[in-house]
UniProtKB/TrEMBL annotation:
Main location: membrane
Native organism: Rhododendron griersonianum
Recorded family membership: Belongs to the glutamate-gated ion channel (TC 1.A.10.1) family.
Biological-process GO terms, alphabetical: cellular response to oxygen-containing compound; response to wounding
A GO CC annotation given for this chain: membrane
Range of residues in the leader sequence: 1-20
Membrane topology: Multi-pass membrane protein
Keyword field contains Protein biosynthesis: no
Function in brief: Glutamate-gated receptor that probably acts as non-selective cation channel.
Name of the molecule in the record: Glutamate receptor
């Protein structure tokens, strides 16, 4: 075989890509010792044991992989005990072992990692998923499987995808469970979700212990349950939950990959277990399909047929990662030797002084090449059963991904994928790696799910806890404005507009809400209702429902009736508007005269007559009564545009004047919040209202000007007295209060515009799902008209009527018509320029010969000739032009021009 094909065989042996060859070679031993610590009879351990033995056989059967060196694997059973795991690790490290595959448990990994750090022996764990093992505290720990940090990120994305906000975490109370749930809490926080209740369980919990935990879970309000336990413990949890009736409609169960591991390994499961897990969602570490993986799956049955004790079992993803871990270590050992590494150990003087008895602590020594082997492990790149294998800078496997699985009937159904690259998707991750990452919420996708209770409708995710507890709802006990909310004397009941809106919304909810109304005081409440304005500072502390009434701040002041007078007809327009309109009248008349007087006899005659005609024409266009006809195209264009402007102005003037003369007008020295800020007068506000802080902090009004008022009577008295008698110039309060106040105090009125855009809503704790449902109910009340009916019932009790009264109808401003005036002005300018250009052209053409025959004329004479030309009518010009065509006419014209006796600007005939 040629050297080239030998090299190719080395690089691609069994589908694994070797790290590369080095020119440095060291003496390779016949055997390299490695160890493994797993739980032999566990769901993960029994599969991993077979997978690692198969991998060792595959490596040792191919002399090219390690150049003739063989791996000797020593596997010890930790038997679910952290203590035994430590003993196993010490026994393995007494035998000059260069690496340990395992431990299987995250708890044991924490303990053994300290020993590995000291002796510089790399740990390669295919199943310890605790995220904290990736810290700098454990430099010799290498995770060859997916980190639970990513699994919890996938669960958080699922929770956000279905618009849930709170979950309950059920977990094993050890390093594995606590760290996983801590990662889940962090991931949920990025989605504005949270764990509302944590239910830890003893790792050796009995059924009665689990029952105690699950009873407490059943009393909580969240129905999104995340189970993060070991496989055996997880099956016990769902069994107890089924017994308590917690696997029915309305519940959501999301199991971490312990459930998919059980389904892959121990199927078919007992019928009782299958019934318990119907509708659950679980995750499974994603391993892409490949020919290598399919070959190993077909080989798996033969590998497990001859086993005794455990019998036949399926291959789970941990088995794939265990197989690949052996190959990672084999490739790293090969690279270790290629880079000059030698297997040698050094004694630690502190260990040599110990007499360890049967443990032989003094026999343990430090692996001299541990750091080089660790570096070789982290540089490995190969394609294995689990897909492409390589490590990131933080020692994590690249491209973490999971399958999202729904348990249905006796099988499972994949509803999508999750990857750290693109989030939730129905497309396999390897196809998405070819595209740029895109993680928008609209791009997240999953197939439909059959939830517990055999329903396809996505559960709401929470219910009121079935523990007899009532919601404590805080209510203000008002002494004024009792129409909004007030306590019924002699009882603990409340009534009013806010109460009726709240109860009407509750009646629309699809579930019962036990509650008790309690006056505000020194206690903790589950909600607050009443006349509560939704403002920025409050939204930072609580969640509010959809506003059920709009109530921004307004200014109310004393008003007086405006009497009509002899000059009332001038009030529709401001003086500026009148002035500009008059100027435009005269301007349009002048432009039309310029355009018409040479060709239209109606615009000719003596100067006095022309001036009168122009003035008459200008003003008569306001009433469409002008008698003069326009004959020039430019004149007609200007007139049409001007008549359109007149039409708009007249329509608005008529409407405004009608309102002034027929509707009662009210006036006030306060025009709105701007004039109130500019003055130095005192301002009233409702005691306890947010209006004080708004006026002071937002508008900069000095606190000495703010006067607190407590009732409608105080409002009226303070406004009647006014600033000169110790009262206020105006009162600033929310519109809802002011409208109720004005219904019985017609001598006051709202002035100016509403200057904030607030509303009233019901307040709930942050992220409360009840706030969302109540908002939906309020919208339904609004759509059906029930909200308006409740408003009219409580708040439309007018003792007087303000209908037919306006507060100082706004006068028409120039800016409202500036566009029309600009268009008209541009049209006049355009017509004038075109007319002037035509005159110049005609003058140049008609008088060029006359100028040539008379010699070079002076500039002033030429200007006088042009002015004479402009003043003549078209008929006169035609006569002169005829004479110019005769041979003797030029002399006559030159004589007339030079004497200037017949030049008359604006005169209709030649004399």
């Amino acid at each position: 075989m040629s050297p080239f094909w030998v090299l190719v065989f080395v690089f691609f042996n069994n589908g694994y890509f070797l790290d590369g060859l080095s020119t440095q070679n060291s003496k390779r031993p016949d055997v390299v010792k490695i160890g493994s610590i797993i739980n032999f009879d566990s769901v993960i351990g029994k599969v991993a044991k077979v997978a690692m033995e198969a991998a060792i056989d595959d490596v040792n059967s191919d002399p090219v992989v390690l150049g003739g060196t063989k791996l000797k694997l020593t596997m010890l059973d930790a038997n679910y005990s952290g203590f035994l795991g430590i003993i196993d690790a010490l026994q393995i490290m007494e035998t000059d072992t260069v690496a340990i595959i395992g431990p299987q448990s995250s708890v044991t990994a924490h303990l053994i990692s300290h020993i590995a750090n000291k002796l510089q022996v790399p740990l390669l764990s295919f199943s310890a998923t605790d995220p904290t093992l990736s810290s700098l505290q454990y430099p010799f720990f290498v995770r060859t499987t997916q980190d639970d940090w990513y699994q919890m990120a996938a669960i958080a994305d699922i929770v956000e995808y279905y618009n849930w906000r709170e979950v309950i975490a059920i977990y094993t109370d050890d390093d594995y469970g606590r760290s996983g749930i801590s990662a889940l809490a962090n991931q949920l926080a990025t989605k504005r979700c949270r764990i509302s209740y944590k239910a830890p369980m003893n790792p050796q919990a009995s059924r009665s212990d689990i029952m105690d935990v699950m009873v407490k879970v059943a009393l909580a309000e969240s129905r999104i349950l995340i189970v993060h336990t070991y496989p055996t413990g997880g099956i016990d949890v769902v069994d107890v939950a089924h017994h308590l009736g917690m696997m029915g409609s309305g519940y959501v169960w999301i199991a971490t990959n312990w459930l998919s591991t059980v389904l892959d390994t121990d199927s078919p499961l007992p019928s009782g277990t299958v019934e318990n897990i119907q509708g659950l969602i679980t995750l499974r570490m994603y391993t892409p399909d490949s020919e290598m993986k399919r070959n190993f799956l077909s080989r798996w049955k033969n590998l497990t047929n001859n086993l005794t004790g455990n019998g036949h079992f399926g291959l789970n993803t941990y088995g794939l990662y265990a197989y690949d871990t052996v190959w990672i270590l084999a490739n790293a050992v090969n690279a270790f030797f290629n880079h000059g590494g030698n297997i040698s150990f050094s004694n630690d003087s502190r260990l040599s002084e110990l007499d360890g008895g049967n443990l032989h602590l003094d026999a343990m020594s430090i692996f001299d090449g541990g750091q080089l082997l660790l570096d070789s492990i982290l540089k490995v790149k190969l394609t294995g059963l689990s897909g492409h294998v390589s490590f990131t800078s933080d020692k994590s496997l690249i491209r973490p991904a999971y399958e999202v699985i729904n348990v249905i009937g006796t099988g499972i159904r994949r509803i999508g994928y999750w990857s750290n690259y693109s989030g939730l998707s129905v497309v396999p991750p390897e196809k998405l790696y070819e595209k740029p990452p895109y993680r928008s919420s609209s791009n997240q996708q999953l197939h439909s799910v059959i939830w517990p209770g055999q329903t396809t409708e996505t559960p709401r995710g929470w219910v009121f806890p079935n523990n007899g507890k009532q919601l404590r709802i805080g209510v203000p006990n008002r002494v004024s404005y009792r129409e909004f909310i007030a306590e019924v004397p002699g009882t603990d009941a409340f009534t009013g507009y806010c109460i009726e809106v709240f109860t009407a919304a509750l009646n629309l909810l699809p579930y019962a809400v036990p509650y008790k109304l309690m006056p505000f005081g020194d206690r903790v409440y589950d909600a607050a209702i009443g006349d509560i304005a939704i403002i920025t500072n409050r939204t930072r502390m609580a969640d509010f429902t959809q506003p059920y009434i709009k109530s921004g701040l307004v200014v109310v002041a004393t008003v007086r009736k405006s009497n009509t007078h002899a000059w009332a007809f001038l009030r529709p327009f401001t003086w500026t508007m009148w002035t500009v309109t008059g100027i435009c009248l005269l301007g349009v008349g002048a432009v039309v005269w310029i355009l018409e007087h040479r060709i239209n006899d109606q615009f000719r005659g003596s100067p006095r007559r022309q001036i009168l005609t122009t003035l008459w024409f200008s003003f008569s266009t306001m009433f469409y009564s002008h008698r003069e006809n326009t004959v020039s195209p430019l004149g007609r264009m200007v007139l049409i545009i001007w008549l359109f402007v007149v039409l708009i102005i007249k329509s608005n003037y008529t409407a405004s004047l009608t309102s002034i003369l027929t509707v009662q007008q009210l006036s006030s020295p306060i025009k709105g919040i701007e004039s109130l800020i500019a003055s130095n007068d005192p301002i009233g506000y409702q005691q306890g209202s947010f209006a004080r802080n708004y006026l002071s902090d937002e508008l900069g009004i000095h606190e000495s000007r703010l006067v607190p008022l407590n009732s409608q009577e105080e409002y009226a008295k303070a406004l009647e007295d006014g600033p000169k008698k110790g009262g206020v110039a105006a009162v600033v309060d929310e519109r809802a209060y002011i409208e109720l106040f004005l219904s019985s105090h017609c001598e006051f009125s709202i002035v100016g515009q509403e200057f904030t855009n607030n509303g009233w809503g019901f307040a709930f704790p942050r992220d409360s799902p009840l706030a969302i449902d109540m908002s939906t109910a309020i919208l339904k009340l609004s759509e059906t008209g029930e909200l308006q009916r409740i408003h009219d019932k409580w708040l439309m009790r007018s003792a007087c009527s303000l209908q037919g009264a306006n507060l100082e109808v706004n006068r028409i401003q120039l800016k409202s018509f500036s566009g029309l005036f600009i268009i008209c002005g541009l049209a006049c300018l355009f017509a004038f320029l075109v007319y002037f250009a035509l005159l110049v052209c005609q003058f140049t053409k008609d008088y060029s010969e006359s100028s040539d025959s008379s010699g070079r004329s002076s500039q002033s004479a030429r200007i006088r000739t042009f002015l004479s030309f402009v003043g003549k009518s078209e008929q006169a010009l035609n006569g002169i032009t005829g004479e110019n065509e005769s041979t003797n006419s030029s002399k006559k014209i030159c004589t007339a021009v030079s004497s200037n006796r017949s030049v008359s600007f604006g005169v209709g005939t030649n004399k």
